[in-house]
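Subject: mismatched residue count in predicted assembly?

I count 512 residues in my input, but I want to confirm that the predicted structure covers every chain. Input:
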Amino acid sequence: MSSRILTRRQMLVRGASAFGTLILAGCDRLTNAPTFMDVLGSAETLTYRSQRLVLGRHRLAREFTEADLSPVFRSNGTSEPDNPTYRKLRETDFTDWRLAVGGLVLSEMRLSLRELRTMPARTQITRHDCVEGWSAIGKWTGVPLSAVLNRARVLPTARFVVLYCADTLEANSDTYYESIDLIDAYHPQTILAYELNGKPLPVANGAPLRLRVERQLGYKHAKYLMGIQLVSDLAAIRGGKGGYWEDRGYEWYAGI
Amino acid sequence: MHWINAVCVVLVLMSGLQIFNAHPRLYWGQYGANTDTPFLKIDSEENGHGDKVVGFLQVGGTQVKSTGFLGVSGTDGAERAFPSWVTIPSWQDLAAGRRWHFFFAWILVFNSLTYLIVSVAQRHIRRDLLPRRFELTPRHIAGDLWNHLRLRFPTGDAAKQYNVLQKLAYLGVIFILAPLMLASGLTMSPGADSALPWLVDLFGGRQSARTLHFLCAMLIVLFILVHLLMVMLAGPWNEVRSMITGRYVLPPGRTK
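Triage response: the counts match. Full output below for your records.
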């Protein structure tokens, strides 16, 4: 009697683990099938549409007080770009650095850090959420991206702002880049930040200038900005998905 | 509907563990990153002699060695929080994990809504799930618990109805755990937080919400394990056939 129960139990355990292995192997195979991952990726459109339509386009991210600041604001991704151009700019304290603004604009510009600092500024204490799961609260000061765009006079055909960076995350890869739509670009909390916690932006956090786009995850907040470009379509740029991590499978809309 | 639910829940749980593995630490409060003190941590470290890596789970100030399952696992002794056989995909890939997670989370939301609408319309919740007054007396609950512990299951007509522990477990999952999962999941979305700031307040911060999302998921795993055990003990063939076809053979009365 007892031996029969044992075999039945063994059979169940074996059956369950075989079934489990089969499912896991199946999921792994599906993960390697680009078409299937595209189907899964269609949920991003649903998330993007529902966040834009149901939750609204103009809502502000929460702003905190000085008492809420993280003791240490973690740096992630590149913390010290090692390409010669950047190193040279850094040596002279970014006095020779210029932000190139181009693409679908009436007047192309090259803005120095000093010029950016004379433009209207906004300070905000916000929570930074990394796609990995951690959060940090920091105080950012910078010029609203909308002010820069208004000065460059964006053409009506433009739909996205592409941000080009100085850093390379892996050897032999392109430099980092990101893109956002015009809804986020003109959002009042979307700023090009040159200060963190009241001090000039540290190199680890993206000196001399980084993007803050507060309703999206950390990888959208491009650091070490070198230029911004207005475009009508993202398909022709690099991997075509609108960003360094996007080209590697992450969502373009990172509001979730 | 149950089977769509079962498939989605398993996929969402396993891809959820993949996402957890990207930052295997949980915190309470608004922020939390590597330099902050976690409430729970799964990690690995070299043991004194420098040749062997030991996995551990740390909750508060207590550390438990967990090599083989948490922290370090697999035949190759890979350093990862949850082992490859409980994550989708089996290798470390946050981007793919997120795609699986959000796609099946959306299906889960639609499936659950359909279930709720149908259940209310057919009075399933009131008729079958809400405990009767007499069932809620401590004496009745204790009696039912005692029967479960002795693995004595109802026979005859009583087997056609949910017993009180079953009712409370189902109601707990449907009306407490599932809504908590959805709400704490939404709270991790910076986009949703800007439109629904009260969600952040409800949980006391995004990192608290992430911690609760994980803890509720573990309770759901516990529910599934007990649920499957009960099905096995009650006669899996009869139970599963009744779920699909509605034909259920009443267990014969016990002969002493």
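Chain B has a mean pLDDT of 92. Marking this ticket as 'not a bug'.
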